[in-house]
Write the structure tokens for this entry.
Amino acid sequence: MSNPTIVTIDGPAGVGKSTMAKRLAEALGIAYLDTGAMFRSTAWRLGEGAWNWDESRLVEELGWIRFTLSGSGAQTRLALNGYEVGDEIRTEEVGMWASNVATLPPVRAFLKEAQIRLGEQYSLVAEGRDMGTVVFPGAKNKFFLDASVEVRAKRRHDQLKEMGKPANLAKLQESIAQRDHQDRNRAVAPLRPAEDAVIVDTSDLSREQVFQALLDGVKG
Ligand code: C5P
């Protein structure tokens, strides 16, 4: 493919980016890139405390990691060194590890490079925190989803319950607020909307309404 199309969806934790990216990719017949999963699986692969390593150890360990993408739409698969990372990265604890390693410039540089490579190979709906601002500034369409921390904690809570995982609403809310703070205030690639992003506040919208807003935005 000579000119892949990129649509970006950024926003804070638990706002529904992954669900929407998957659906939009399915509707557009292209792949989706869950960059949160790249940060989570990198943090998972490196292990707890990697954020305290010295830079040379970090760079060496990152050198062993390769991401590949296959399929498209809802069938898109992301693999780390050939292994399709599953639900083990979906806990709030691993989310916090991901947020910790995401503050480190070598990790951001490594994953940015990997994401750009994938965007050269495939048309993508790419979701994360810095897709529209840093990784794909020239994307065709950019969206920024937002919602109150209460609404997002409730959604994450329901999602974890659906997966049969333990979930405590108050703890989730606290952890999401802490992760938001860290993601919005870090020095490198902080969470913020791109100047040319369409901002969608999803607090009072159903999933269908959010999806429709994105679809209309892509068409328009
Ligand atoms: O989206 P998700 O909750 O899976 O992301 C986990 C963490 O990875 C975020 O809290 C954030 O710190 C980091 N992340 C990032 N940049 C991205 C995607 C995720 O910093 N593009």
